[in-house]
Here is the input.
Amino acid sequence: MIQKYANPARFNRLAATLLPWFAWPAAILIFAGLYFALFNSPPDYQQGESVRIMYVHVPSAWMALFVYTCMAISCAVGLIWKHPLAHIAAQAAAPIGACFTFVCLMTGSLWGKPIWGTWWVWDARLTSVLILFFLYLGFLALQNAFDDPARGERSAAILALVGLINVPIIHYSVVWWNTLHQPASVIKMAGPAIHSSMLLPLFLMAIGFKLYFLTLLLLRMKALMMARRARGMSMAQLHHQAAE
Amino acid sequence: MQMLSEFLAMGGYGSFIWAAYGTAAIVLLGLLYLSLRELRATGAEIAALEANSPRRRRMDDEDGDEIK
Amino acid sequence: MTRKQRRMNFVMLGLATLGTAAALVLTALEDKIVFFYSPTDLVTKTTIPKNQQFRVGGLVKEGTWKKPENGLTHNFTVTDLRHDIAISYKGIIPDIFREGQGVVVLGKVQANGIFRADEVLAKHDEKYMPPEVAAALKKSGKWEGGKARAE
Amino acid sequence: MKFFGENISCVRGERLVFRGLNFAVEPGGALVLTGNNGSGKTSLLRVMAGLNRATVGKIAWSDGPISDDPEKHHGRLHFIGHLDAQKPVLSVGENLEMWARLHGGTDEKIAMAIKKLKLDGFEDLPGRYLSAGQRRRLSLARLVASEAPLWILDEPTIALDEGSVAAVRALISEHRDAGGMAVIATNVELGLSDTTKLDMRDYAAGQDDIWEGVS
Amino acid sequence: MKFFGENISCVRGERLVFRGLNFAVEPGGALVLTGNNGSGKTSLLRVMAGLNRATVGKIAWSDGPISDDPEKHHGRLHFIGHLDAQKPVLSVGENLEMWARLHGGTDEKIAMAIKKLKLDGFEDLPGRYLSAGQRRRLSLARLVASEAPLWILDEPTIALDEGSVAAVRALISEHRDAGGMAVIATNVELGLSDTTKLDMRDYAAGQDDIWEGVS
Amino acid sequence: MNALALILRREIRLSMRQAGDSAIIVLFFVLAAILFPFGVGPEPNMLARMAPGVVWVTALLAAMLSFERLFAPDYEDGSLEQLALGPAPLETVALAKAAAHWLTTGFPLMIAAPLIALLYRLPDAGYNTLLITMALGTPTISLIGTVGAALTLGARRGGVLLSLLVIPLIIPILIFGTAAIDAAIGGYPFRQHLLLLGGFFLGALVLTPIATAAALRQALE
Amino acid sequence: MNALALILRREIRLSMRQAGDSAIIVLFFVLAAILFPFGVGPEPNMLARMAPGVVWVTALLAAMLSFERLFAPDYEDGSLEQLALGPAPLETVALAKAAAHWLTTGFPLMIAAPLIALLYRLPDAGYNTLLITMALGTPTISLIGTVGAALTLGARRGGVLLSLLVIPLIIPILIFGTAAIDAAIGGYPFRQHLLLLGGFFLGALVLTPIATAAALRQALE
Ligand code: HEM
Ligand SMILES: Nc1ncnc2c1ncn2[C@@H]1O[C@H](COP(=O)(O)OP(=O)(O)OP(=O)(O)O)[C@@H](O)[C@H]1O
Ligand SMILES: Nc1ncnc2c1ncn2[C@@H]1O[C@H](COP(=O)(O)OP(=O)(O)OP(=O)(O)O)[C@@H](O)[C@H]1O
Ligand SMILES: [Mg+2]
Ligand SMILES: [Mg+2]
Here is the structure.
């Protein structure tokens, strides 16, 4: 079934149908989320207005982990079942994940200064996220480091799988170590420790970010498939001319 | 006017909050812009190559070639 | 030995090693690795070298924080509800610093027993709510803040 | 035990190099690949050895495809490409011994290989002192130093002088007489008798085949 | 302008490879080096190019020994050895252009070289996609892309298919007709007319000669 | 003789024949460690505080330098091709390579580490723990390094890319290694750090040969 | 076009084509600088004290990694042979190579240095001097590195040997570079340090191409 969409033309058509279903809801949800986040949600009893950073920090942090996990799964599919779309998806996802990770680091840092009293500490959560960021960069660098693009995508895929151990470490770092970063607020046994008036914009933004990710993913995959075809065509034309 | 500046000040956290939202917006929208630009550039490249090729084969051919 | 058997042996050996690895890691995680020490540690662990910087974490004890007159030097006590340590800090404190709040301070114990901090970080818990809700909770006696993150 | 391939296509550097190629080698047989520069001889040899994957198609022995048990396949072949797998700081003897032993070669076999490739007297010479042709002969010595039914040779006579070319020819005949098989890519006439020819030009892919039939 | 060497001995890896060798090439002449593997062909070519020093003896043009003005000597020669001096990330055209320009080659010359070596159509192809023979042809294209009276070629036809070998043969004849000279080491018959042969075996040094004549 | 022993013997022979190789790694280690006092200033207190960190970081950087040539020569001269075509699975080859790397590099580093610590006037209580952490940490570094080396084989600027890939993966070892020494000096318990280092080692022992073999297969395609 | 311009153009083209190369060097720089807080502990005071030293030492180590591939690819694929056989003297080749190395590596390092300093909370007074010392020091490092790279060409474990040769030669630059920054932070005069760095640079500019050319000639024999 999925094999079918390895055809660039068919993939293009699928992307064209899906795109509006991702792009528009993403825009609407993010705008609604922003409205609630900035205008229509209460300040925190402790942190005051600064809590509003949460509405970008937490969704992008979740995306950083989510995108990496998706990327690693897609890499595994590419390595085991040799489906070319899988590598393209991973390749398309990596820069998006790197961007979300960067946003998570920056917003966390900007939140940490007023609340903790420091931009940065080397605690387990912050350090492991930084490592995640470097894994993304390493993935991208490895991908582009080879003359043969096929070699690059497979080597990078192996790296992505090796680095997957980092994801549970990031998530549980606040449990395993005494970190300055707070423990989980939302996904916990006893139910969210966040008041519903703050939970609403958080979820709006989180879902909006996911859809935005899917939008970008489709766009980038399309571009990558076209680039691949362009390379193949130019190569073939060269050889053809040469053979004549 | 005063309401606006009060809103922008965000109870003293304005600079942090706007910097956070600003970075997020720049990074995420920047990526969108770059992706779209890349898409357009490769589209143009393919068009040029197709114009060059002896037997034309369009990207949206109904049953085009396939990588499986 | 056939190829299948040999491969099976390798898989078993690998799984056993991985199991041992997991056991080691889990044993290690039984006692948390510390980013900071508690005031109790300072009392029970006599080996803490007094000439080194380290981190102490706990809650700011109610009624010990005097707003400094000159606006810079803060004196307060950090507690883990069992032991206390007196802290002196010259500098800007984080915004959410208040009595009952979790803090992590970095510094040295001085000859007079007072801990001179070079850095004060505020540690907060995972609860987020509007101020009205917090007030209501406090009133109704369901408030259980404070002791949450004092380990 | 037959070694054969069916409907093989190969993509290198995102270009389809050849497609729909079939071949078969019987014990005692020799397959000689010819074709222009760039027609895909080296690519095909690497696919046969299992170093590269065929993009489409199947390579197999009578008892199953090579992908089922790559190690068994590797145990059945010797591959001599352009790279010589020799260390300049190891002596000729040490260089040869490593590869021979890996494939189960014995001391006598190794001694015989040294003699057949006219490397006697060089055993203790460090690899860095060898000339182009001597180095090539040391690579070829691996064929004799341990046994394997299938020899895969990429332009084996490159850089060899006349006498050595004759020696290699004799080696291949001997191997085939003993029931071995050989696949040889070459641009020059080797003077082997009774070979199957495979002209790569017959399987060349046209410009429009880029995405076709690629799995 | 004659290019010649007198009484040359060469030590490589502490072994005397050849000794007492004399040679001379006149304009239009071609010197073909033959000899067993390891007889010193490559060594002699490198000495001629000025990459290695002769242990004893003198190499000179009619207007003076090459050691007097190495840069002038280098400006007069093209050396094609086993290494190809090509970058996989540069295109065929860029690879060729670099060396051609260094020796003062012009755009037309470069275009002609590409055509003569049948590389047209490959100009924009990255070097990494070339097969063994294509890569060799790109090396040989340097001979045409800029002019030099002396060509020093180490086994130029290695890895080439038949058509390309013929093209190289034509190239060398053309060069000689225009008054150029060539020194070529080879293990195979090249089919050039009117060449001077130099058999390296005639200058081989015996076992006892190791320390003799070594300066 | 089986493949593992054959490869080990060859690697060790190669490193013996190319005399002084591991000596050079150790020398680099010492030199890099000497650089820091130049940059930071030679106050004894400060140096003693830095000692565990500097020893570990420089050992890491020294090891990093040696990774680049772990597979590259074999790749370039075709030996890797021949190893892949041998009857032994590539996982065995990967393990043998890692073992050889540790014997010729990690082990000498471990021996040299206390000397550098001496130079930095590490407090006496730290030496034992330093040795134990190095003994547990350096093999893990060798194992992780082989993955990185295999992944970047044939890549452009492979050496730098390799460091980029390997450093994040090695950071935990560095953290727990130095934390254990710091704890030992301060008189705190450090059992948990050692347990973690041991766990990392065993985990890497099983998982990295698989990743390395997969990466090598890609490299040869 | 003369040989110097030809070679420069080729080197820059190569580094462009192999996209992201200098980006990777800078990344390594950042990564190595990040390692130290792990080892040493994250106390802000101490980090600020270490900042000039760490920036300089890690920049040096990053540059060191890039030296290894300065001539090696050209040596291995025969380009160096051809350059030596070209009509331009080898001294020109050496100079062009050093210039290209600085443009593609030293310059990006110089740009990245203030960022790392920021991470270590270098006092404000130090940034200008940091930039100036890097601007004077990195070209000298490139020049000295070319000598080392040429000397170790074809040597076994060349990379490590190279570092071993180059580090002692570079130590003075490191010393005066960090001393100047320390002086600037402390409010002392630092003109003499800068003068010395400038002197080193000019000296190296004249002497190193000669040494490099001689070493290359040896390597090709
Ligand atoms: C550079 C600094 C920071 C980094 C790298 C960072 C990273 C992360 C990550 C990766 C998560 C997702 C964890 C998961 O889903 O398992 C997260 C969640 C969170 N972070 Fe941060 N963070 C930083 C600073 C902060 C600060 C300063 C605050 C608040 C004062 C904060 C509050 C939160 C909250 C509330 C969550 C949601 C927890 C949940 O999943 O329920 N973070 N952070
Ligand atoms: N490593 C590679 N990566 C990508 N493409 C390659 C690679 N090697 C070869 N090719 C391409 O595959 C085609 C076939 O190359 P191959 O080396 O198999 O040819 P060949 O028949 O062995 O030629 P020759 O006689 O010149 O050795 C070439 O035209 C080349 O463009
Ligand atoms: N780099 C080197 N260092 C030391 N000795 C060498 C080196 N290269 C070759 N030799 C020695 O010099 C002798 C001559 O080698 P050379 O390469 O000149 O031979 P050749 O005639 O070109 O042989 P072939 O036909 O095999 O290429 C060889 O026997 C070898 O032992
Ligand atoms: Mg070939
Ligand atoms: Mg030769």
About this structure: The two ends of chain G are 29 Å apart (CA to CA). The CA atoms of residues 49 and 91 of chain G lie 41 Å apart.
